Amino acid sequence: MEREELAGALLPILKKYGTPGLDINIYNFMLEFRHSLNPPYNVLASPPGYSHDDIPKIERAVGEALNWMFSAGLVARVPDASTNHLVFVTRRGRQIETQEDFSNFRKASLLSPNLLHPKIAEKAWPTFIRGKHDTAVFEAFKRGEISVRAAAHYDNRSIGVDLMRNAFHPERGPLTDMTLPIAEREALSALFAGAIGSYKNSTSHRTVTISDASEADEMLILASHLLRIVDDRAARVGLAAATL
């Protein structure tokens, strides 16, 4: 098993070992785990299915899984303890109740806020890590809509698909790069209009549930990519205005 997979098996064990409010002595935990693999009352016998040579490998695999759980914020060290052996399952760790929850957490943890546009990281990331994927996607594309409107100098009556089609109109859009071939200008206009219509308008018009964290990952990355294009075009519009 990979360390992330093994962590999914260890988390419920740690939650039972250290009930809420009770710290876990990780040294004692590993000692008990070692004894379960190689019972002291029968030191010459190998555990069922394992050889004595396998036991150190198993212990190291568990150690890798524990380190991943620390980095993922599922377990943490007790801050005022006199030894670093004392740990506890974090609030985030206790929110994970099923293997499906853990699978979604793993998918969500693949996305770093450093990959997102700063505006999206600020507005959508806190919601995303709480598992509210549909709200996070809505916030991300809402940031894009607001930025396009501001860059194109439109008022608040310009919204949604029409806003994108006008701002990136291949012939007269204020955010259109006229140095590009007409086919690319048309494609970018369609991309912005399609994205806002599919991912922002749908969540604002009806209840849309995004249960797969990896799907939300992809949507946030797309929103960030589009917003970076808007930043580039806004900078060009401002430079052109300054030279007039």
Helicity, in percent?
55-70%
Number of separate helices: 11
Q: Using the alpha-carbon principal axes, give the shape.
A: elongated
- Low-confidence regions: none
For the sheet with most strands, the description reads: 3 strands, antiparallel
SSE sequence, one letter per element: HEHHEEHHHHHHHH
> How far from one another are the termini?
63 Å
Instruction: Give the averaged pLDDT, no decimals.
Output: 84
| Number of structural domains | 2
Order of strands in the sheet with most strands: 1-3-2
State the total count of DSSP E strands.
3
Strand content: under 5%
Question: Structural class from helices and strands?
Answer: mainly alpha
Computed over alpha carbons, the radius of gyration is 26 Å
Features:
244 residues, mainly alpha, 2 domains, three-stranded antiparallel β-sheet, 11 helices, 3 strands
Structural notes for this entry:
By secondary structure, this protein is mainly α. It folds into two domains: 3-109; 113-242, no CATH class. Helix content is 63%, strand content 4%. A hairpin with an 8-residue loop joins strand 2 (75-77) and strand 3. Helix 8 runs parallel beside helix 11 (213-242). The longest helix is centred in the last third of the chain and has 30 residues, at 213-242. The chain starts with a helix and ends with a helix.
